[in-house]
Structure formats: structure tokens, C-alpha cells
Design a protein that fits this description.
The protein has ten helices and four strands. It has 201 residues and is of the alpha+beta class. It has a four-stranded mixed sheet with strand order 2-1-3-4. Strand 1, helix 1 and strand 2 form a beta-alpha-beta unit. The radius of gyration is 17 Å and the shape is globular.
């Protein structure tokens, strides 16, 4: 199994987090998405990051890769077992992608001057979710799950784009530190990602 991954892409980071959380033996090949290696292009002409290769299987959507890894290697499970809980988790991840990751992409792609509005929207949206972060040890769950794997790479990148999510009770930062302190999260970081957050210094 090989995961082709950008060293800075948050979606790729989420897939790497799942790999390490499940202690899956695999090769992680870092590459520049603007110049995909020839062997990747042969399997995935889009050169998209991340791309997972396992024998004849080629997957190149981060969320599909995360789901596949959880089903292919069921222990420890990162999804609830019952269909309702699994569907609810999938919807939450979809909302996170639509509400937060789209803004993150806009901030990263638009540059410092043009990104002020998107930064304000992303910060306010995350802060408005503080009660959810406070309600349980993990995001809307008593157990660590794929939802946390999806959220963590975004939270990790906030300091590097100048977004402060401090609250009076530090509930969101406390949640983030619980996730960032997991050995699997630390192992999931590329060298470039280690430079994104002061917590890694």
C-alpha cells in the first residue's frame, strides 16, 4: 500500500492521520502536486493528492480513502458501527468540508489581502461551534473518530494563516491539544506541517 501525498495539503494530512492511527503498514510518498511523478500519473492521470494505491485499487478522494482504510483495517474502529451513527458522521464531515475547508482553501489560494473576509468567516464559524467542542471529549462523540481525523488538520493550520480560536475557557484549543498530543497525529505530520503550528516547536 502506498499513499501519494502532498506535504502541505490538509486533506492529505487527514488520510495520513488515519493511516497512523490504525498503525497501517504503508509507504507515504511525498510529492509536489504541481509536478506529479510519472508513476503516479500512470495510475491516476489527475495527479490528485492524496492518492492511495493498493494492488489494483486506486483511490484519490481523501474522505473515500479514510472510509476505505477504516473498513479495510477495522481495528480500532473510527466509525460507529450502527448505520444511523455512521450516516450522521458522514454528514458532519461533509458539513466540515463545505463550511470550513472551502474557506480554508479560499484563504490559502487568495493571498493575504484578499483573504480577510474568509478568515473572519472561518474564525467566527469555528468559534460558534465552541459548545459542540465542549460537550464531549471528542467532536460530538465520547470516542475518537474519523470526524476528529477530518477536523484536526484544519485546526493545525490556523496559526499559520493568522487565525486565533482562543475562547475564555479555551475549550476549542483544549480539544485541539488533546488531538495534537496523540502519537498518531504527531507521526502524521510532514516536515512542512511541523512548521505550521507553534505547538510543534
Amino acid at each position: 500500500m502506498t499513499l501519494f501525498s502532498s506535504p502541505t495539503c490538509a486533506m492529505s494530512h487527514a488520510a495520513r492521520f488515519v493511516l497512523h492511527e490504525k498503525a497501517i503498514v504503508s509507504d507515504i510518498e511525498y510529492y509536489d502536486p504541481n509536478e506529479p511523478p510519472a508513476d503516479l500519473l500512470e495510475l491516476n492521470p489527475t495527479g490528485a493528492s492524496p492518492t492511495l494505491i493498493e494492488r489494483d485499487l486506486v483511490l484519490y478522494d481523501s474522505r473515500i480513502i479514510m472510509e476505505y482504510l477504516d473498513e479495510r483495517f477495522p481495528h480500532p474502529p473510527l466509525h460507529q458501527m450502527d448505520p444511523v451513527s455512521r450516516a450522521t458522521a458522514r454528514m458532519l464531515i461533509k458539513r466540515i468540508d463545505q463550511d470550513w475547508y472551502q474557506l480554508l482553501d479560499e484563504i490559502i489560494s487568495s493571498g493575504e489581502k484578499k483573504s480577510a473576509k474568509a478568515k473572519k468567516m472561518l474564525r467566527e464559524s469555528i468559534l460558534s461551534s465552541a459548545p459542540i467542542f465542549a460537550a464531549k471529549p471528542f467532536f460530538m462523540s465520547d470516542e475518537f473518530s474519523l470526524i476528529d481525523c477530518a477536523i484536526a488538520p484544519l485546526l493545525w493550520r490556523l496559526p499559520s494563516i493568522g487565525i486565533d480560536i482562543s475562547t475564555p475557557n479555551e475549550v476549542i484549543n483544549n480539544y485541539a491539544q488533546r488531538i495534537f498530543s496523540r502519537p498518531a497525529f504527531k507521526r502524521s505530520l510532514s516536515e512542512a506541517e511541523k512548521e505550521m503550528s507553534p505547538t510543534s516547536k
